[in-house]
Structure formats: structure tokens, C-alpha cells
Amino acid sequence: MSLSRLYLLTETFRPWIYHRTMSSKPQFYNKKVESAINCSSLKLNHTCLRVKDPERSVAFYKSKFGMDLLEHKKFPDMKFNLYFLSFPKSKLNHNKDGAVDVFCENGILELTHNYGTENDPDFKVNNGNEEPHRGFGHICFSVKNIEKTCQDLEANGVSFQKRLTDGRQKSIAFALDPDGYWIELISYDRPEAEGKSRPDVGYKFNHTMIRVKNAQKSLEFYQNVLGMKLIDTSKHENAKFTLYFLSYNTDSPRWTQEGLLELTHNWGTENDPEFKYHNGNEKPQGYGHICISSEDPEVMCKEIESKYGDEIQWGVKFNQGKMKNLAFIKDPDGYSIEVVPFGLCC
């Protein structure tokens, strides 16, 4: 079986065609959350990954990819720390405490460290791509010149799951971070698709990929409940899977953006009553969540509760947990989505 078939690694150059609506009448989430759909400030803010050794992982993303450490939040009472990284940005907002408002941006990577894992020789992070614990797939960085980027990364000691020359997919590569998480690499310079070339603006944190059991159910949840827009679909008949790209931004092609969510659907999983993906938060842990943020997410959370009641599961309802002014909602596969306001001070 090919690498692309087994792990669903694909990225096709194709015309920029948006698919903004679901293909059929809603079957699972037919009540639209208007406060999400009509919210102009909503964004996919960050993706959380657990790491074994924070010093090693932070150094990797800084030295190999040029990310900046924007914020280091410490929670000694709960025995974990958070590290917020981003590719360099020209302008950053600040919260009321004067720190960078890491919840007001797109393209943030949050690394979570639970105290003591770095000293445990038996501890290993679940990267989401090994059976029987597949679920989360990868994060994706985009660049202008993918050939040169891959050459530079390999020369700088970065390991690869898939090089550009491997397999049939010659336009993508997959690097590996210190915990074995996969980092897809793609190009945002696609003159054949857009009719123009794009300038080199460095790296972008393009998307996060998770596998889903029932594509229709997941698409309805992310669009009707959380207000995302389906901006592109890539169907692969031979390998029997489809990729769906969702965003809060419909103004530009997906490969030029930051803060997208990619849903991967293997055909037939929706018909298997025993099939289940690993959500990253059950043992063995790895992937944590994506986070959406806005100016006033409490209104959206209350509307979701009002319209769906017990139909939708919550990890923590808004402002009801130990950490205030946030919520964790669960999607149809049990993946967690954090919901926070801009300016949140932990």
C-alpha cells in the first residue's frame, strides 16, 4: 500500500474553486447558530500539541522554522505550562496586562508541557498517525519556494516522513518534529492556479488536519454550529478519501491563508458502527485541540446551548470551569475545540 494511501498525504494543484455549501440538506445539525455564522471577528486562533520536552520542542520550532515564542504561561498548581509560538508578524495586539494577545491572532501554535514527562524514559507522545490511535494528522506550514525550503531544512538536521521526491505527490513534503508530529509543507506561490506569482513572506501556519468518521456530520457541525465556511474540497477517487478545507476567511485561496481546518474523510468509515478515531485527549495523549476566538464568544456559546442542549457535548461550558472566560466544546468525533475571547489573560 502506498504512503499516500495509508496516511492520506495529498495536496493537489488545482484551480481556485470555492465550495461554500454542503452537498445536501442538513441531517445532523440543522439549527444554525447565527451568532457564529454572522460573527466577523471569529478566527481559528491556535492548535495545541502536547510535547515531551518543552526546551527541545521550543528550540526546534524557533531554530528550524524561525518561529517566535510570543508567550510562556505557567500553571504550577495544575502542573503544566503553555508555550505560544508564531511566525513573525508585523503587528501584534496586546492584552490589558501588556503582554502579547496570543488569542487575537491566526496561525498560533500552542505547545503544552505536563511536568515530568521530559524525565520519563517511557513517555511517548501519540502523534496521531500510528494505529490503533490515528485521528489527528498534521499541522501544515506554507512557503513560497518549497524546494529550497526542504533542502534548507534537511541541511539543518530536520528529519522527513516524506520528501518531495518520495511517492507520487511531488508538490508536498512532511517534516517531523522532535515528538514525531508531522508537519506538512506546501507552497502558497501557485501562478498556474491564480494567474500571478505571490511574494515571499516567509512561513505561514496554513492548516491543521484531523480525520473524521462522518464527513457530512462534521461539516454540518463546523459550519452550522461554529460558523466556519467550506472553501475547498479535494476528492480522490483512486485512494477513496476526500479533503475538506474550512476557514473563517473566504476572500483568498486556501493555500495563501493561516488558520484553516482540514477534515480528512476515508470513505466508508461512516457506515462502520464500531469505527472510532482517537481524539488525542484519551490515553495515549498527543494532539490537544484547536481554538477559535472572537470578541465575545459567550454569546455564541449560550446560543449553542439554547439550540442544541444535550445534543452537543462540552468539556467545559463557558466560564464554568476552574479557568474562567473560556469553554471547550466537542465535535462529532470527540475532538476538543477551545473557545476564548480576545484579550484573555490566564
From TrEMBL:
Cofactor note: Binds 1 zinc ion per subunit. In the homodimer, two zinc ions are bound between subunits.
EC number: 4.4.1.5
Domain of life where this protein originates: Eukaryota
Amino-acid positions noted as binding Zn(2+) in the UniProt annotation, renumbered to this chain: E110, H138, E184
Catalytic reactions of this protein: (R)-S-lactoylglutathione = methylglyoxal + glutathione
UniProt-annotated catalytic positions: E184 (proton donor/acceptor)
Stated role: Catalyzes the conversion of hemimercaptal, formed from methylglyoxal and glutathione, to S-lactoylglutathione.
Record protein name field: Lactoylglutathione lyase
Organism from which the protein derives: Lachancea meyersii CBS 8951
